[in-house]
Amino acid sequence: MQPNQPSQPNQLDQVAGERLSHANRIFTSDLSVNEFALLHGAGFEPIDLVMGVSVYHVGFQFTGIRQQQELPVLTEATYRARWNAMSRMQAEADSLGADGVVGVRLEWRQHGESMEHLEFIAVGTAVRFAKSPGSYRRPNGQAFTSHLSGQDMVTLMRTGYAPIAFVMGNCVFHVAVQGFRQMLSQMGRNMEMPQWTQGNYQARELAMSRMQAEAERDGANGVTGVSVDISNYAWGYHTVEFYASGTAIRRVGEGDPILPQFTLGMNS
C-alpha cells in the first residue's frame, strides 16, 4: 500500500514567490544548449528554474533481527519527504503558469551531523508551450513534471505521447539475519541466500507496484525511463530502501514515424 499523500498540495513559499516574480524579465534554466535548442524548436520556451526542498527527520522503527518485513514508518518518512519536495517544486511551476517541468532531478543528501536527518531536493526547468499555453498541462490543470531530458521530451512528443507526471514508489525493507547454523552451512559453498533473494524481490515489487499505481491514478498509458535505486541511509546492512521512479505518459495523437539517421562525428 502506497503511503498516504497529503490531501492538499504545498502552497508557494513566500521567499520563492519573490524570486519568481522576476521571471518575466529573464529566464534561468539548467537545460544544456542542445536541450534548449531542441525544446525551442518544438515550441517550448523556458520560464525559470523551479525547485522544492524538504529536510526530514526519519524516525526509528523497532524490529526483530530475525523478522523479514517492510518497515512502514521508514517507508512513509522517505516517501513523504520526497512528496514534499516535489509538491513545492510543482507549486512554483504552477505559479508561473507553466505547461510543464522538464529534466526533473529528485536527489537526497545527509543533512548536518545527524544520520537521521535527510534533505530531499527536487529541481527542474519550468517551460511554456508558446503557440498554445496550457495545452500540455495535466487534466487537473497543473503543469506536467518529467525527468526526461530535452532530447527525450522532443522524441516522445514526435511519437504522439505527452508526459503527465513524475511518478515514484518506495519500500523500506528489513531482511532477516540468518541463523548461525545456516551461516555455517554456507561457508565455502556456492548457494543462494533465500532470505536476501526473497526480501529484495518483495521490496522491488512493492516499490514498482506503487509507482505504477501513481501512474494509473493520473490516467497514464505507461511509464517511461523507469529506474530503481537502492539505499540504506543510516539503517545498517540489513535494512534497505528500494525506490522506483519514472515519467508517466499519455497518448495524445498518432505521431510521426521516426527513421534512423546517419551522423558523422567531427572527430572521426
TrEMBL record:
Signal peptide range in chain numbering: none
Q: Which Gene3D superfamilies match?
A: Hypothetical protein apc22750. Chain B
Q: What Pfam families is this protein classified in? A: YbjQ_1
The family classification in the record reads: Belongs to the UPF0145 family.
- What is the recorded name of this protein? Heavy metal-binding domain-containing protein
